[in-house]
Amino acid sequence: MQVPPAHIKNIEVDWLGRDQVEIEARWESQTSSPRLQAMELRMAVICSEVRQALQVWIQDCLRAGQVLEGPEGRGHAEMFVREVSLKLRDQFTPPFAETEMCHCRVVTTAQVDRAVVSGCHSPREVSRATTASTSCGTCRPDVEAWIRFRCEAR
Ligand code: FES
Questions:
Q1: Which of 96, 100, 102, 124 has most ligand 1 atoms within 8 Å of its beta carbon, as the pocket-test mutant?
Q2: Hey, where are the domains in the chain?
Q3: Does 137 contact ligand 1 (Cβ within 6 A)?
Q4: Domain 100-151: which topology?
Q5: pLDDT, tens digit (0-9, with 9 covering 90-100), for 77-128
Q6: Could you give the dihedral angle defined by the CA atoms of residues 52, 55, 61 and 67, in that order, rounded to the nearest 10 degrees?
């Protein structure tokens, strides 16, 4: 029997110092709407909470035959799975592109991101954790946009 050609996509999610995965997804490509056939963890350094959320989501995707939206929720596992989902769907578009988000306090975008995925879900909590937005306030809309980006399901 001839094996149909497959479309393959590899993505990486790397939360430095926390969780990291490389995932390969494969779709059959002989029909007009290719069906997801497999999703495999090529490398995973993840906590048990992320592993469990990822496994449940992958099983749901394979049953549906497509890459589904990530789960709702503000826990770091849900945020992590959402990033996997968005990357596999080519929809991972962070709202702020510069490396440094708060120029007054010299706070990087990565620092703000780490604060949000670690549980700071309001501008006040992010400010307390990072000092971002504690001077002129110009960066506050960017901090707010980042919180929405991480915390809202898509
Ligand atoms: S740019 Fe962040 S407080 Fe001024």
A1: 102
A2: 6-88, 100-151
A3: yes
A4: Arc Repressor Mutant, subunit A (1.10.10)
A5: 999 999 999 999 999 999 999 999 999 999 999 999 999 999 999 999 999 9
A6: 80
